[in-house]
Sequence to fold (173 residues):
Amino acid sequence: MNMNEVETKNCPFCGEEIAYGAKKCKYCNEWLDVKESDFREPMMESSVSEMAEKPKKMTSVKVMSIIGIVLFSLTLIYGLVSETEDVDEIIGDGIVVVLYAIPFSIVALVHAGKRMALKVMSIIGLILFSLLLIGMLASETSDLEEALGFVVIANLYAIPFSIVALVQSIKSN
Ligand SMILES: [Zn+2]
Fold:
């Protein structure tokens, strides 16, 4: 019996018989301990990234886009069919629309990730809604058409934007 005989294993890379505790294969020079830990870490990372991906399911975008579609459609329809001549009321509706649309754009932008259409629409929306908000707050118009213009422009952008956000958020689930 060979006294030098030690417990052996086969190198996972080249298949040569090597010492059980060897850290490096003497035949192919592969680092065995490094490779073993490399083998474990990706599994841990994947379970961590799975947990990290859960917020990316865009639930907040989905909920906000559904509320948005309802809010924007109703204010657009109301603005177009109502016979109100109260400019302040129409401006008030417009401000409600953009005060919802601005945080909605921010939430959509944060969750857009690599969804370019949503990202671009969120950025344009953020700029447009902010400008409309400033315009409405600064406006001292008594012109009904002008007041309605703010509401219509805001909603004509906000509605398709909400639909895109909703579709993207459904796809992400
Ligand atoms: Zn080897």
Summary: The beta strands are 8-10, 17-19.
